[in-house]
C-alpha cells in the first residue's frame, strides 16, 4: 500500500501543477474588448445533408451586425435538399452568399472527407480573413463576426473561439457540455501559456494566407478528422495565435441526443490526438492519466483504510481546488449550472474516455459526423 500511496501523491501533485502552472492563466484572464477594425471577413460553412439546420441557423449568420462580410456555403455531396436550401438563401442574399458544390465525381479518393470540401471553399473565399462554423451552429449574438475578427492583427493570424452546446434536460446533455468546457479549459490555457495545440471548427478563425502558406490540410488530408485541431496543432505558435472569450463571440450547437451518437462522435475526434506534436501528447496524456490515477489510488487506499485521514485531506484539497477551477471557467464560458455536478461529471467523463480509447484500439470510425 505504501507504493500505492506514493502513486497517489504523484498523481495529485501532477494535478496541482496543472491547476497552478497552466489553468491558472485562464482563470485570471480578462476578456479584452477589441477596437472595431471592420476587416472584410469570409464566413465559411461546410454542410453535408444539413438542409433543416441551414434553415434554422443560417439566418443568424446572415443577420450579423458587421459592415463587410460574405458567407461561403459548401455543399459536400449532400443527398438531401441542402444545395436547394443554399440556392434559396442565395436568391434572397445575392451579394452576401457564395456557393461551392462538391460533386460526387470529384476526387473519389477523398469522398466524404470534409477537408477536401473546406479547401475548395477556402480557395473560393473572396477575403483573406476566414471565420469558420458548422451548419448546425448559431452565433449567440449579432456581434459574433465583430468579436472574433477583432482579434486579428498583423501578427495574430489565428483566433480560437468557444463553441458551446445547447442546454437541455438530462444527464447526457450535462456530460457533453462538461466535456466541452474541459476541452476549452485546456486549449485556451495552453494557448495563453504560449503552447496552442487545437481549436474547434464550430468557432475558429484564421487567414487564407496562413492556410495557403502551410499547404492547407496537405499533411493530414487522408485522415477523416482534424480540419480544426490538427490544422491548429500544425500551424499555431505563441506569436500568431489569439483567444476570444467575449460572450458575444460564442456559438451554440445542438448536442447529440443518445450516448451511442455521442461516443461515436468523440471516437472520431479523439482519434486525431495521436497526430499532435509530441509535447502536446505528453502533457494531455499525463493530465488524463493523473486524473484516472488519482481516483483509482484514492479509492484503493480508502478500501484498505491506509492512512485514510491523510488521504481524505488530500482528496478534499484537490477537489476544492478543482471545484474552484471549474467554477471560474464555467462562469467565463456561461456554463454555471455545471459547477454543482462536479466531480460526478468528471468521473463519468474519465470512464467514457477510457471506453473510447479501448474502442479505437480495435476499430476506427469511418464516416464524417460533425
Could you characterize what this model shows?
This protein has 370 residues and is α/β, with parallel strands linked by helices. The chain has 2 domains: 2-26 and 278-362, no CATH class; 32-262, Spore Coat Polysaccharide Biosynthesis Protein SpsA, Chain A. Helix content is 49%, strand content 12%. The chain is built from 12 helices and 10 strands. The strands form 2 sheets. Strands 3-2-1-4-8-6-9 form a 7-stranded mixed beta sheet, sandwiched between helices. Helix 2 (51-62) links the parallel strand 1 (41-47) and strand 2.
What labels would you give this structure?
about 375 residues, alpha/beta, Spore Coat Polysaccharide Biosynthesis Protein SpsA, Chain A, 2 domains, seven-stranded mixed beta sheet, three-stranded mixed beta sheet, 12 helices, 10 strands, elongated
Low-confidence stretches: none
Structural class: alpha/beta
Q: Under the CATH scheme, which architecture of the largest domain would be assigned?
A: Alpha-Beta Complex
* Net shape: elongated
In round numbers, the mean pLDDT is 91
Q: Provide the succession of SSEs.
A: HEHEHEHEEHEEHEHHEEHHHH
- Total E-strand runs: 10
CATH topology value of the largest domain: Spore Coat Polysaccharide Biosynthesis Protein SpsA, Chain A
Q: Can you tell me the number of structural domains? A: 2
- Overall CATH class of the largest domain: Alpha Beta
What gap, in angstroms, lies between the N and C termini? 45 Å
